[in-house]
Amino acid sequence: MRLISRSAFAAAYLCVATVAATYNGRIKPKVMIMTFFDAEGEIYLTKSNATGALDFRGMRHRVPYASPEFPDLHCTADGDACLMTTGEAEIQATATTMALLADPQLDLGETYWVLTGVGGGAPDQVTLGAITLARFTVQVGMLYEMDARELPPGFDTGYVPQGTVSPEAAWGSVYNSEVFEVNAALRDAFTAMIDPARVADSAAAAAYRAHYAGVPRFAPGAAAPAVHHCDSATSDTWHTGALLAETHAKRVDLWTNGTGTYCTTAQEDGAVLGALVRGALEDRVDFARVAIVRTVSDFDRPYPGQSVMDNLVNGTAGYPIAIENVWVAGDSIARGIINCWNETFRTGIPAQNYVGDVWGVLGGTPDFGPGRVSGGKPVVLPGAKGQQLGRKTKRGMRRSRFQK
Ligand SMILES: *[C@@H]1O[C@H](CO)[C@@H](O)[C@H](O)[C@H]1NC(C)=O
Ligand SMILES: *[C@@H]1O[C@H](CO)[C@@H](O)[C@H](O)[C@H]1NC(C)=O
Ligand SMILES: *[C@@H]1O[C@H](CO)[C@@H](O)[C@H](O)[C@H]1NC(C)=O
Ligand SMILES: *[C@@H]1O[C@H](CO)[C@@H](O)[C@H](O)[C@H]1NC(C)=O
Questions:
Q1: pLDDT band at residue 15 using 50, 70 and 90 as cut-offs
Q2: Ligand 2: which residue has its CA nearest to atom 13?
Q3: Mean pLDDT computed over 204-233
Q4: Residue 209 near residue 218, CB atoms below 8 Å
Q5: Which of 36, 41, 100, 189 is spaced 20 to 30 Å from 89 by Cα?
Q6: Which residues pair with residue 134 across a beta bridge?
Q7: Domain range holding 380?
């Protein structure tokens, strides 16, 4: 567990912006807040009248191909900060992100993408209400799955990497949405913008988390909510229970080469990032300007003596503070970016770590996974300048290098 102390906040990002950018027909957000369902988006609008908060009621823009449930982008009057809600789970998240990328009214070249949503939390890392900032998101459901009642002898889980015959295997065949890695230095900068004293807590959350206090390993789950560095597991399937949590924790470890730590469950993170990689390939997105924030609304497994169903159905005590902390984190980060735009964020914070997908299509060498397809150089698509590494080659590489 990497708990962030208050001292990191004190010195951080206290710039004061005096001049707002001008909105002149095309919206050029400095920051795009991505949320996934109604309550996550609405909290930003409800809090828009809070003292010092960004006011997302300033401008509304209908985005073609957005979710029918959430068709509008909400922005500050100057267009510096915008708020989008994608709709839940992977399909909606990818489709809405692509809709933003395709919208000619948006200039996204310098935009910071801040994903802020609620998720389940692992009690050995975090507690209800915790704010987590990730370096990785891992798509833990993209494997073979066997029902527990039909497990082969010796298997301790029904999840097996595709192209392999063992749950212990690290990698088999690779689709290239298994893992995304984002800019750790940017994550650190954003962390420093969040005042730990503002992390919301509640008596109901405290009463619920106390059930985890008897297990030494779950000490983080029984502690008050704080700000953490740890990683998200993306899956359409809302998993619950200790055994799946342990399986997915192991997958995050294996697929990040031991660098990542599973602490939250999410249904969208990898889906948004997959679209953003494509945006980066088209020069529409700077993939070093992406951050994944999840707050913990419930525990991914029951406390001792509790049934899985009880935790699933009745374990919602953290939900209100998780929603509140989505805004605490997202509003703090967005204001930090805008206020320190000239000093820091216009030019950006260079990534010291690898950023991108499993194959390395944006260039660089992934520090996880079975290798790269492009020899450390970015893939350049037809119509763009530079080295071309087309579809045929990529598929060929997948078969010959990745598939067993
Ligand atoms: C940031 O730089 C721009 C362009 O140089 C300038 O117009 C603006 O006033 C600056 N903003 C602040 C807050 O200093
Ligand atoms: C802010 O908005 C909320 C919800 O719309 C409302 O209840 C509250 O009175 C408003 N506060 C101020 C200071 O305008
Ligand atoms: C949820 O809590 C209620 C009230 O304590 C209880 O009656 C119910 O059985 C619980 N649900 C499950 C699935 O355990
Ligand atoms: C994974 O970690 C091992 C041990 O630290 C290291 O030798 C190996 O190079 C790493 N793999 C990648 C792809 O970085």
A1: confident
A2: 49
A3: 98
A4: no
A5: 189
A6: 292
A7: 373-404
